Amino acid sequence: MIWGPLLRTYKNRYAAFLARTVIHKTAPADFFLKFMSKQKNPFGTAAYVLTFDFDFEKDIEAFPYLLDVLKKHNIQAGFAVIGKFVEKYPDIHKRAVDAGHEIINHSYTHPDNPHWAPDRYFNKLPYTEQKDEIEKAHEICHKILGIDPIGFRTPHYGNLHTESVYPILAELGYKYSSSTAACGYKGFGAPSMHSHGIMEIPTGCSLNFPLAIFDSWNMLRKKKPFLGDDAKFVQEFQKTIQVIVENKLFLTHYFDPYDVIKNGKIDIILETLQQSNISTILYRDLFN
Ligand SMILES: [Zn+2]
For 30-55, b where at least 16 C-beta lie within 10 A, e where not — what string? Predict the structure, then answer.
């Protein structure tokens, strides 16, 4: 008796899974739009949050230029910063705060950063050490930069992200985490409530690669990159923004500063944002 309906449910689910797989492979842009259209955009109008992760010394070297070019285009961004770097380079971080950019807590040492924490993995740390990493970075931002971040990004995102960060963030009075990938998270690329009163803001994908994070690592730098070419990278960004604008969607990306200042990619990204009918906002604007 029960097998008929069960089998039908299973068959339907399998058919839906197959359809999704096929459409993703054959018509990724259709898949992207269908997926993103399910989101609840809290702004109701096309909105974009630009963020950067400062993981390595070469990202710090790119910092002054990045601040200059953001100023030139009158765009503010979110900077996921490491406590260790704030201690080592306080002035450039202070300059970012003075320019109105948002500071995102990115842990104290960024396990497995080769500079200080080569063999540590955030998700493998005991709860007390995870808590220490987050709290210490927070205290440094407070003491050195004079600000209290309200958001956190797990070092290395998805793979090293863990549920245990949410109670830690709640205890610190944080409002959000941006540590998941849009393709694997329930919000369809938009912010949604996760747990412990913390909002999760997943990092976004792009029009032709809806199941990957759109960043320079995936698109350009890894062994078999999706694009492998700077011109294609900016084209993909431009096409994606166009679809976001046309459909009044929410999107957020993160970039590695060192990678995107190379060959003027950041200039084109900022020009695209400035010229398209999109609001560039900050994560903290979600809570005002
Ligand atoms: Zn990082």
Answer: ebbbebbeebebebeebbbbbbbbbb
Residue 43 near residue 279 (C-beta atoms within 8 A) = yes
Ligand 1 center–CA 54 separation, angstroms: 6
Domains, the chain, ordered by start = 28-287 (3.20.20.370)
Question: Which two tokens mark 180?
Answer: 């998941």
For 48-99, how does the pLDDT look when each residue is reduced to its tens digit (9 = 90+)? 999 999 999 999 999 999 999 999 999 999 999 999 999 999 999 999 999 9
**Residues, CB within 5 angstroms of ligand 1 (ion):** 53, 55, 155
Q: How far apart are CA 170 and CA 157, in angstroms?
A: 19
Dihedral of CA atoms 85, 89, 93, 95 in degrees, nearest 10, equals: -170
Q: How far is the CA of 120 from the centre of ligand 1 (A)?
A: 13
Kind and range of the H or E run holding 192: strand 192-195
Whole-number Å distance between alpha carbons of 72 and 70? 5
The verdict on pTM exceeding 0.70 is yes
Q: How far apart are CA 165 and CA 175, in angstroms?
A: 12
Confidence band (pLDDT; 50, 70, 90) for 160?
Answer: confident
Summarised one tens digit per residue, pLDDT across range 22-35 is 666 678 999 899 99
Cα angle at 116 between 113 and 121, to 5 degrees?
A: 45
Report residue 179 as tokens.
């540590």
